[in-house]
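Appendix C reproduces, verbatim, an entry submitted by the partner laboratory led by Prof. M.T., so that reviewers can inspect both the input and the predicted structure.
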Amino acid sequence: MFKQPEALNSEHHATLGLAREPDYSHAANEMLVPVFSGEAWQVAREYTLVFPMEAGLPLAILGFQKGVNAYLGNNGSWWGRYVPAHIRRYPFVAASTKSDDGQQKFSVMVDRSAPQLIADAGQPLFEEGQPSQLLKEVQKVLINLQKDSQRTTQLVKQIEDAGLLVKQSLHIKVKNGEDKGLQGFRIIDLAAFRESTGETLAALNKTGALDLIEAHLCSLTNLQDGLLAKKASGQVGDSGEPPMSLDELFEEGDDDFSFDFDS
């Protein structure tokens, strides 16, 4: 989604503002989107949650046709009650760097080509050379996403190390009644999961990995009666306005992280 990323800078971006109306057109071609553990159950209510072929974050399936996001509505609106955090944080993302003394610090990156960024209009990102209240809130969100990304990656690795992931295609019925295969990811191996020892299950439960597994298993039913299934089968068309989405993300910040807008 990020076509022209650059570090947000109080000097070069002093007049930039953020458009007040949400527009998710930047995700028009996304068929898969990374998911963080903190939103796993919200995602599981709407989307099918799967695991990547290699280490990384879980993925939510957004489409059944190559390059088409089935959840994108008219005029950049969104079908579904919950918009994944990765979609909502756009046009912002955190980048990790190291200072001269070896300390880790984070910079806010923006997609300079994003239509949400407007010169001398919208909600300002800087006020008198300092981050505005909006930008401070963006920092908090990005910090939490960075933390949750690291944690979620560890949870997926724990699940993988337990031998519970298997490559498998999933199927969804399309308009002609035939099954269309979706592939390129892994799911939980139910046979291996059922044979897991009490020690393994206790370890998965302690870290929160078991919760992620359960969210994934519950989400698989969305391929039968979720919004994506209904769109694929033609039960729901693309016209009209989608239902209102949930806008809340993460509420807690972390003072151990800092952002540099002067470099």
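Confidence is low (pLDDT under 50) at residues 245-259. Additional entries are available on request from the coordinating office.
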